[in-house]
Amino acid sequence: MSVAVGIALTLSYDLLRVFRRVVSHNSILIAMEDVCFWLIWTYVTLECIHVYGDGVLHWYMAVGILFGVVLFHYTISCTLLKSVNNILYKVKKSAKKHKKLLKNSDNKGKM
């Protein structure tokens, strides 16, 4: 279960990183998002420790979480983020092209 928590933690942070690439953020908003993210994940982690470890942090639980983070980060996360970056780049490029075409078509109609 600890490994699953580590994987979910890393996946959710990757999704937050993707969201930040799509929606422009200033440093204050990024800091607020990070604080909220870590507060939520602190609660989730402590709740898992409470439920599965009877409230006692066993060394193997911490190692399991760390293993899940590292496992996901170095396998799926790298591929996932590269794929998302490629998709976002293509969408942005396509949007610029269509915007340029629309702007040119508007200018041709005016005299």
From TrEMBL:
Annotated transmembrane regions: 59-81
Alphabetical UniProt keywords: Membrane, Transmembrane, Transmembrane helix
InterPro entries in the cross-refs: YabQ (IPR019074)
Protein name: Spore cortex biosynthesis protein YabQ
Native organism: Coprococcus hominis
